[in-house]
Specification:
With about 100 residues, the protein is an all-alpha fold. It contains 4 helices and no strands. About 60% of the residues lie in helices and about 0% in strands. The mean pLDDT is about 80.
Length: about 100
Amino acid sequence: MKIESLGKPVAPTHATEARLRPGSTPRASAGESVQLSPLASTLQKAEAALAETPAVDSKRVEEIKQAIREGHFKVDTNRIADGLIADVRQMLELQAGRS
């Protein structure tokens, strides 16, 4: 089976090129300006704060290790079960919202 192009190739626009090339940033021409919405600015600040936040709370990990060594660490199975149930409910609500 042979597939042929019936149309002319279309030159991509500047915006399309930027989307297709990861890492490229569209640049404004002379005299053009870009203004971010307040929401975009807030999101940038939140992203910066998250980037600075460690993924693991080392102090808390050490506290738990110490409690395990000393035999004081207790697993609250009810709390774990409640958390799992809450997570499942949230996932189900998200799935129902997409339908």
